[in-house]
Amino acid sequence: MIQEQEKPLLDVRNLKTYFHTENGVVPSVDGVSFHINKGEVIAIVGESGCGKSVTSYSVMGLVGQPGKIEGGEILFEEKDLTKLSNGQMRTLRGNEISMIFQEPLTSLNPLFTVGFQISEVIMLHEKVSKKIAKQKTVEMINKVGIPNASKIYYSFPHQLSGGMRQRIMIAIALACNPKLLIADEPTTALDVTIQAQILQLMKDLRQELDTSILLITHDLGVVAEMVDRVIVMYAGQVVEEGNVFKLFENPKHPYTKGLMDSTPKIHERKEELYSIKGTVPTPMNMPTGCRFYPRCEFAMEKCKEKAPELLEVKQGYHVRCWLHEEGEVNLDEEFNRKPATT
Amino acid sequence: MSTNSAMEPGTSMEEQFEVSKGINPWIRWFKLLLRSKTGTTGFIIVLTVCITAIFAPQIAPYDPDAMNPANMNAPPVWLEGGTSAHILGTDSLGRDMLSRVIYGSQVSLLIGVFSVIVAGSIGLVLGILAGYYGRWIDNLLMRVVDAFLAVPNILLLLVILGIFGSNLITLILVLGVTNWVIYARLVRGEVLTLKERDFIRAARSIGTNDRTIMFKHILPNVFSSFIVISTLSVATTLIIEASLSFLGLGIQPPTISWGYMLSTGRDYLATSWWLATFPGLAITITVLGIIFLGDWLRDVLDPRSQGRRP
Amino acid sequence: MGRYLIRRVLQVIPVLLIISFIVFALVYMAGDPVSLMLPEEASQEEIDSLREALGLNDPLHVQYGVYIINALQGDFGKSYRYNQDALSIVLERLPQTLELAIVSMIFATIIAIPLGIWSASKQNSYIDLIATGASVLGKAMPNFWLGIMLILLLSVNLAIFPVSGRGTLMHIVLPAITLGTAIAAEMTRLIRSNMIEIMQQDYVRTAKSKGQKDSIVTYRHAFKNCLIPVVTIMALQTSGLIGGALVTEVVFAWPGMGQLLVQAVNARDMAIVQACVFVIAVAVILMNLLADIIYRMIDPRIKYE
């Protein structure tokens, strides 16, 4: 546990990112805290609209209008990113922290060669000549596993396949050797076979470059594949956080359990996949008390009245649920013990 | 489980929307209109112009053709020498400018509305035919459209009106005949995409005949973009009509039109600036109102724009 | 590219044929030109022989055939007023009209690009409000009225610019502003709405995530993409631009095709009218072709199809 003593690379504390829309304030991210250590890979998991993407954009400083970071700290190597000026933030972006996105086709500019789009970021941050930037770009294209790099340099995005485009995006993101890579659903838009290749590539490069990765996904399969620690978000809050093996083996929050039960597993035959009843609450009708209780199978009277805090149930393992108030509970056992009234 | 329905997740805007659907559609549209400042402005302007045109004899303080040689080129009331008897002054024959501007709205409106009806009907029918049947009809129509697009509207109008002379009816017809291409193009494009939609295929597969498909199934779906284009093209027609009058080929006196007033006023620019200014202002404000209204309609009706739908 | 060009040029042929047909029909309906060409005291024999010489006694389809063959050779007949080849008269005036159109276009571009981008990047600010307001106003104002108002203010009252005519640099300022305002209004609106849409695209977000400056993100990554729809739509408006130029010329007595045409129409000088229509149609078609080529140069996705 010596590693734990070390200062984390990224430490997000009580982050609040709100959107000021015509219909009122939408608290997309509502008091989220987590950290990433050096070289660690963590994932933020949740349904769409839970605030996981907004969290990552907050770290990048790319929350656009009408969104705004309303509170909290984002400490990156102990600098608070929320207090940096635009210009200071720009020197970090693409350089120390970089990001890849879900849709590789639309994320690349259709009017520039991929080579230019990679060398652009190198020239920007490393202040090297065009020639050296080009050389480095070709190296990067090689590194992300595209053969014939010097020819690909002159290709336009529309001439490449989806997998190749995502490799180019990864090349752009890793071109300046960032300390943190944020990957927002990097494989969602790709074919299944390509997905595996891209994940493998990210794993390999992470080893090679010692980059920490923050993976944003709703795909638990991807999480199991490459992550050290998982953060589960629901309605703008962290509901569970912990080591990936412990979490998969024995989820503590009813929502996490629901998510896992609704994912098909290869070696289990089921008549019907489980689905969590109800829908994600909109900010306009956020339940009082626990935000998940209207959909929760374990809901108690208390849940309706009082919102639970994030509790540490074990060393480095947090859950936001009243069930675990007086010590850890196993959800499967709890479920069986419950009288079948509903 | 819960008894408090306000807390039930999923009661969202959609349901409130369902509720509001029950009210009289006119009121619903009106509420929607009030939400847009420019839409409301446009609506008020257009309504005012319509009322002015319809009730011109009641509103105008003078007979617009009554000359008064004793009071020629009188300036508007706020200038030195102006009288409150003629708020906007008088023209070179001593006719009251305000009355003439009021009467001018009649012709503009008449031409704007009717030429758009002519153009719209031609374009709608040809567009649907071309889009639906495709092949050589479509090919031919599109080349004709290209030909019309290659010749500036005003040029074609000049030539035709130069040959046939212009009165109200020819002007309306000619404006309609030169203007149909935008509708034909729009409608054809819409029909081409609609044709591939499932409900049309379904109608065809159960043996509905072409005419029913075109006029019962396709037409209503083209209608909203058609209305938007029509509204906006009333605006351009007004400007074109004024330009023609200015070039001496529009409505001829004694019919009063803003364009003609403007072009005669130009000769007195050095001495009586108001003669050219007020008719131009009237055109600009009217067109502005129509554009506002048309843009609002587009926001509301056109699913491709991001505006709210009723 | 070469094949595409050939196909496009081939498409022009039926378009020109249709135009020629419409013009022929109009001229035919305009009536007998002979009475205009001869002095009033001309004898019946003189009239008959001129009719024969002009081929007016031939059947209609023969007349059309002859007309097409002549038109292909650039022969639209003689202007009875100038007693000169109509096409050469029109072509003499073309440079002046082009001069006005091009200067106006440059004026419009200089105003519209920064204004459009600026108001898109500051959506709903005062700048945006003023820019969109001005562009709607520019669209709502009849071109010639704006011209007259400019003359009133800047020529008659302040005596800065000459009222009309062509000659010095000062002469072109007011006509160019008049014509340019209408173009700038449309262009600003187009650039604004396209920029707003493009600034929300994923690749703009990528550019920002690289740490690129806002100005570079806007001009390099977004604006280049914005040019594609803007160039296309502006090219489609060429015919409107020329139409506007015709009217503007009359306002400022600018010695271009517009003035010539209006005079020709009033004098029923159909040879000049026909030549004008064709020259303008060809100019519009060429502009559209040019825009197509530019657009293919900007957008690499098209070139290889």
UniProtKB/TrEMBL annotation, chain A:
Listed GO MF terms: ATP binding
Topology of the protein relative to the lipid bilayer: Peripheral membrane protein
Top-level taxon of the source organism: Bacteria
ABC transporter domain mapped to chain residues: 10-260
SUPFAM superfamilies, alphabetized: P-loop containing nucleoside triphosphate hydrolases (SSF52540)
Keywords, sorted A to Z: ATP-binding, Cell membrane, Membrane, Nucleotide-binding, Transport
CDD domains hit by this protein: ABC_NikE_OppD_transporters
The keyword Zinc-finger is annotated on this UniProt entry: no
Main subcellular location: membrane
Listed InterPro entries: AAA+_ATPase (IPR003593), ABC_Ni/Peptide_Import (IPR050388), ABC_transporter-like_ATP-bd (IPR003439), ABC_transporter-like_CS (IPR017871), Oligopep_ABC_C (IPR013563), P-loop_NTPase (IPR027417)
Cell compartment(s), UniProt: Cell membrane
SMART domains: AAA
Family listed: Belongs to the ABC transporter superfamily.
NCBIfam families: oligo_HPY (TIGR01727)
Protein name, per record: Oligopeptide/dipeptide ABC transporter ATP-binding protein
Organism: Evansella vedderi
UniProtKB/TrEMBL annotation, chain B:
Domain annotation ABC transmembrane type-1: ranges: 105-294
Principal location: membrane
Cellular localization per UniProt: Cell membrane
Keywords, comma-separated and alphabetical: Cell membrane, Membrane, Transmembrane, Transmembrane helix, Transport
Pfam families according to UniProt: BPD_transp_1 (PF00528), OppC_N (PF12911)
UniProt membrane topology term: Multi-pass membrane protein
InterPro entries with a match to the protein in the record: BP-dependent_transpt_permease (IPR050366), MetI-like (IPR000515), MetI-like_sf (IPR035906), OppC_N (IPR025966)
Transmembrane segments: 38-60, 107-132, 144-163, 169-187, 222-251, 271-294
Record-linked Gene3D superfamilies: MetI-like
Family named by the database record: Belongs to the binding-protein-dependent transport system permease family.
Alphabetized PANTHER family for the sequence: D,D-DIPEPTIDE TRANSPORT SYSTEM PERMEASE PROTEIN DDPC-RELATED, OLIGOPEPTIDE TRANSPORT SYSTEM PERMEASE PROTEIN APPC
Protein name, UniProt field: Peptide/nickel transport system permease protein
Native source organism of the sequence: Evansella vedderi
UniProtKB/TrEMBL annotation, chain C:
Pfam family, one: BPD_transp_1
Source taxon at top rank: Bacteria
Primary residence: membrane
CDD domains: TM_PBP2
Presence of the UniProt keyword Isomerase in the record: no
Annotated ABC transmembrane type-1 domain residues: 94-291
Keywords: Cell membrane, Membrane, Transmembrane, Transmembrane helix, Transport
Parts of the chain that traverse the membrane: 12-31, 100-121, 142-163, 169-191, 226-252, 272-295
Location in the cell: Cell membrane
The UniProt record lists the keyword Cell cycle: no
Membrane topology: Multi-pass membrane protein
Database matches in PANTHER family: ABC TRANSPORTER PERMEASE PROTEIN, DIPEPTIDE TRANSPORT SYSTEM PERMEASE PROTEIN DPPB-RELATED
Similarity remark: Belongs to the binding-protein-dependent transport system permease family.
Official protein name in the record: Peptide/nickel transport system permease protein
Classification lineage: Bacteria, Bacillati, Bacillota, Bacilli, Bacillales
